[in-house]
Design a protein that fits this description.
60 residues; mainly alpha; rod-shaped; 97% helix
């Protein structure tokens, strides 16, 4: 009985560690999805800014 009671904190700690690892993996997956989703938008925006800067230099 004492063994069972003393193992409960260890089991709780192991469960919390496992939960944190799972959460960290989900966060990494979400960051990857966001990065791949916004990369084309950001590159288009960057290209458009460069075009506007070139037009400004030629016209101004």
């Amino acid at each position: 009985m004492l063994y069972l009671i003393s193992s409960i904190p260890f089991l709780i700690l192991a469960f919390l560690a496992w939960s944190i690892v799972r959460l960290n993996k989900k966060i990494d997956e979400l960051e990857q999805r966001i990065a791949t989703g916004y990369a084309p938008i950001l590159s288009d925006l960057h290209r458009r800014i460069e075009e506007l800067e070139r037009e400004k230099r030629f016209n101004g």
